[in-house]
Write a structure and sequence with these properties.
The complex is a heterodimer of chains A (about 325) and B (about 300). Chain A is mainly α and about 325 residues long. In chain A, about 75% of the residues lie in helices and about 0% in strands. Classes of the chains: A mainly alpha (about 325), B mainly alpha (about 300).
Chain lengths: ~325, ~300
């Protein structure tokens, strides 16, 4: 104990004193637990990767890389391939990113560039953030009974008039890529918007004042000064939104139609990696589970890479402004 | 359009500016100039985008109130789920299951999350461990929730040989953890350095400073993070699909398959029976109300600290 260091101090009549043995143990124990918790998180992530990787290994050694390029998923014959799911995951997420990205960035501009009075802006920001709070299954239910019936006449008209365009190559009979991507766009919009808002807030105010001082209109200031300055932050928002879209499961499992095909058409049913896991896993036998573990590993790898890129871009963006200040 | 602004020029001359240029740029507002029109057009587009983006939220809430509200009664809240052609029924067991699993996840993730955040924010913020934990926590927030299910399936369901509420709770805990860590770290970093220094100055140990000063001061922020994590976990269903599975009965132990609201909605939404679909809407209404209550509580608590 450290208390003997203070033995020469005259403490008569004083309420203060060195830490007691109990204090010392509490301090050590408390910090130990904190350290352990931090290590636990590190270990957890490593364990997740090892566990999923390890469970995927048998399927990997059996199917090899052909698994990624094969298009059949047949439990009876034991043939497994996830090319349609990889395609569907990337295609639906890309569509969602385009729609959600445009709206998300527009909303970030709307919230930061003095379109609304402070109080109203806070209310509107809450509305956008609550979009992210609605559970995925509820969006799925809404998609099935509200969005698809609403989209079907439009989609079928587009197919009838412009059927030669590959995007409208099929009619929309029920679930399909288009409605799924639209719901996905709604779900990633808050992510894109809130990270972009932060990025735009980081631009020093004097930059905007300088632009206005030169006589720019509001939109010249936004397009030529604010957006390029906040560019890397907005890029991070888009990449992280894309990562969010890749892993989204329930709404897609309910809306995309779980069909093992590759099509450019927005109205044809498709499938994604996450939806494949959701729909096949609960009833899968041991052979199919091994294949699904491989699919899970592929999903893990794709999302980890995309998220790591997003976080790296964000770090770069933040640093840029720290250096300028 | 750009005829010289004579008044301005005259004023400048009157003010004694010796070399007032003959032609000043037009400094009056020119609302119909192309640049201004373009700006106004884009402003209108942004307004439309913003209003369009809030349509889904109101549409979801409106439909929930109409479709779910008409079915939401005592029976729906307490009865067991109906089988295929049965009328009536409810989702009482799913409410209990969701509460139990979210409670379990909270009990697991909150202590670990807060202690890890203490390490990140106060004890050793610049160590290599802190940097990697911070990065991994951020990466975990973008981690597909279904993979938490796959992970827990491999670790718990396979070894226990049964789907269970315990496995469901652990899967949700994995998803709550990063939210809690990051929010708690943020909250504790906001605690003014002066307060900590004052506590150190009167001879507190580090644990005492954290326990008696940092945690109480940062509590609103930490609580906000916890509430948001709970709201997220309550609505999350993907990881429960093959960890808790589903059950038609009330939960009697933590080691048996367990019903949850989200999985009930997922299962019932695809059924061709009106009764089940109505129940799916009613269950969605309950779920959204729970999630929104936690979200709004989080906002209220978070706002109080300012």
């Amino acid at each position: 104990m450290a208390s003997h260091h203070f033995d020469h101090v005259d403490r008569s009549g004083s309420v203060s004193g060195p830490p007691s043995a109990g204090d010392y143990i509490f301090d050590r124990g408390f910090r130990g637990v904190a350290w352990l918790s931090a290590v636990f998180i590190l270990a957890l992530v490593v364990y997740i990767v090892i566990e999923i990787g390890g469970k995927a290994l048998p399927a990997f050694s059996e199917y090899g890389f052909g698994f990624l390029t094969s298009t059949t998923w047949n439990v009876q014959t034991g043939q497994f391939g996830i090319l349609p799911e990889i395609w569907g995951t990337l295609y639906s997420s890309l569509l969602a990113l385009i729609i959600g990205g445009v709206f998300g960035v527009a909303i970030a501009i709307f919230l930061t560039q003095d379109f609304l009075h402070g109080h109203l802006a806070a209310v509107f920001r809450t509305i956008i953030e609550l979009l992210a709070a609605i559970p995925s299954v509820v969006y799925g239910l809404w998609g099935i009974y509200v969005l698809i019936p609403l989209l079907r006449p439009v989609a079928n008209w587009l197919h009838g008039e412009f059927g030669f365009v590959p995007f409208f190559g099929t009619s929309l009979s029920g679930p399909g890529l288009g409605p799924a991507a639209l719901v996905l766009a709604i779900m990633i919009l808050p992510t894109v918007a809130s990270i972009s808002v932060d990025a735009l807030h980081q631009v020093p105010y004097k930059v905007k004042e300088a632009a206005y001082g030169m006589g720019t209109t509001r939109w010249e200031a936004i397009l030529k000064v604010m957006l390029p300055t906040a560019g890397s932050g907005i890029l991070a928002a888009l990449v992280l939104g894309f990562g969010r879209a890749l892993g989204e499961t329930m709404a897609l499992a309910m809306l995309i139609g779980n069909s093992n095909q590759i099509s450019l058409s927005l109205f044809s049913p498709a499938n994604t990696l996450a939806a494949l896991l959701a729909s096949s896993f609960p009833e899968a036998g041991p052979v199919e589970v091994r294949a699904l573990m491989y699919a899970a590993l592929v999903l893990l790898a794709i999302t980890l890479i995309v998220n790591a890129i997003g976080l790296a871009v964000m770090k770069f963006a933040t640093r840029k402004f720290e250096a300028e200040r | 359009m750009s005829e010289p602004n004579l008044t301005a020029t005259a004023e400048l001359i009157a003010l004694g500016v010796p070399e007032a240029p003959r032609r000043l740029p037009n400094l009056n507002r020119a609302p119909f100039e192309i640049r201004a029109l373009k700006s106004g057009f884009l402003t209108a587009l942004t307004w439309i985008a913003a209003l369009l983006a809030s349509v889904p939220l109101f549409s979801v809430i409106y439909r929930l109130a109409i479709e779910g509200g008409s079915r939401l009664d005592w029976e729906a809240l307490t009865a067991l789920p109906p089988s295929a052609f049965e009328q009536g029924g409810g989702f009482g067991n799913a409410i209990v299951g969701t509460l139990v699993m979210v409670g379990l996840a909270t009990l697991i993730s909150v202590p670990i999350g807060i202690f890890a955040a203490i390490y990140l924010a106060i004890l050793d913020p610049d160590s290599r461990l802190a940097h990697s934990v911070r990065f991994l926590s951020k990466a975990l927030t973008g981690f597909p929730s279904i993979l938490a299910g796959v992970f827990v399936y491999a670790v718990l369901v396979v070894t226990m040989k049964t789907y269970s509420a315990l496995a469901g709770g652990v899967a949700l805990a994995v998803l709550m953890l990063p939210t809690v860590v990051l929010a708690a770290e943020q909250a504790m970093m906001m605690v003014p350095k002066k307060m900590k220094d004052a506590a150190f100055g009167i001879g507190c140990t580090r644990a005492q400073v954290i326990w008696k000063v940092v945690l109480p001061t940062g509590a609103p922020g930490i609580l906000t993070g916890v509430m948001l994590a709970i709201a997220g976990a309550a609505g999350n269903s993907a990881p429960l699909l093959f960890t808790a599975l589903f059950s038609g009965y009330y939960l009697t132990s933590l080691t048996e398959p367990t019903a949850s609201l989200a999985i009930l909605i997922f299962n019932f939404s695809g059924m061709p029976y009106d009764n089940q679909i109505e129940l799916a809407w009613a269950a969605s209404l309950v779920l959204v109300m729970v999630v929104l209550v936690f979200n709004i509580l989080a906002r209220i608590i978070g706002r109080q600290k300012h």
